[in-house]
Description:
Elements: H1 2-9, E1 15-18, H2 26-30, E2 48-52, E3 55-65, E4 68-76, H3 79-85
Antiparallel strand pairs: 1-2, 2-3, 3-4
Amino acid sequence: MADDLKRILHLEVPLIVQIADRRMMLSEVISLTHGSIIELPKAIDEPLDILINNTPIGHGHAVKVSENFGVHVHDVTPLRDRVQAMGPGSKASAEGAPTPATAAG
């Protein structure tokens, strides 16, 4: 049982930090060019959604870390819910190989 737990804890799962989502007409997407701005239906000070396998597991705010961006996690769902997000039907493989993350929204 301990070996099974060790294997599970080393699985890689897709982690998504979602700023917001917005539906656009295909014609709008096709007309996007370098420098285009897409307005999102979320205020800048609203929390970001943290998802595993497209399942919400917490919230946080964007922070700058040196020259990179990060997320300061404010809250997470209970451990049971986070484990279920990786359970049956999840996109993480049983062998622990990472799966490509899909764009949210």
